[in-house]
Amino acid sequence: MPNPTSPLLLETIRLVDGQAPLLHRHQTRVDRSRQRYYGKSPAFKLSQVLAEMDLPTHGVHKLRLLYRVGLESYEVQPYSIRPVGSLRVVEANDLQYSRKYADRSSIEAAFARRKDCDDIIMVQHQHVTDSSYANLALYDGDRWYTPAWPLLRGTRREELITSGILHPTVIRLKDLPHFEHIRLVNSMMEWEEGPTVRITAVLGL
């Protein structure tokens, strides 16, 4: 039986002219999360859920699904990329976000410590993980790498690893000065669209 106290889960999907290009990867993550909390509950097929919605057919939109065993609620909003020009390193040793939970209060608390920076780099036990809303890609002048152990394995990150653009590796805080740029990566942004920050704009190193 499903646990009535199981957390509310979230899935954020990029819609482009009414289509969801990464839907198969979102489905994989939803399946894993529901298996974790609800075992062999009836299938929750995103393609069927989206087919029953009246979705916008032009432009880029963010579709937010809140679900447990099944869909609880959803909302659709036009999407634009938030500029990020600086990042602050924030220690987040006890923060856990291995599933995409609707409750982001712990991440929001870390984000509140950014001071005068636009976003944060969360570090756990001296290892680089994620920003407040995206996975990280780091460029050393030759290749793009991504932390092997992020807080959350994002769908865009998985797609970029599969295509050979991103290379997972262990990245420690002391390694950051060896990179040239950091790019924010998430499902709502194409690879080339992700805000990219010079390593000199990372504070707290």
Radius of gyration (Å): 17 Å
Structural class: alpha/beta
Instruction: Quickly count the helices.
Output: 4
Q: Uncertain segments of ≥5 residues (pLDDT<50)?
A: none
Order of helices and strands: EHHEEEHEEEEHEEEE
CATH second-level architecture of the largest domain: Alpha-Beta Barrel
Provide the CATH topology of the largest domain.
Answer: D-amino Acid Aminotransferase, Chain A, domain 2
Under CATH at level 1, the class of the largest domain stands as: Alpha Beta
Helix content: 10-25%
Shape: globular
Q: Could you tell me the mean pLDDT?
A: 95
Terminus-to-terminus distance: 47 Å
Read across the widest sheet, the strand sequence of neighbours is 9-8-7-10-11
Please tell me about this protein's structure.
It is a single chain. This protein folds into two domains: 9-78, D-amino Acid Aminotransferase, Chain A, domain 1; 87-203, D-amino Acid Aminotransferase, Chain A, domain 2. The protein is globular. The mean pLDDT is 95. The chain is built from four helices and twelve strands. The protein has 205 residues and is of the alpha/beta class. It starts with 8 loop residues before the first strand and ends with a strand. The chain has helices spanning 23-38, 46-51, 105-111, 155-162; strands at residues 9-16, 60-67, 71-78, 87-91, 119-124, 127-128, 135-139, 144-147, 166-169, 181-185, 196-198, 202-203.
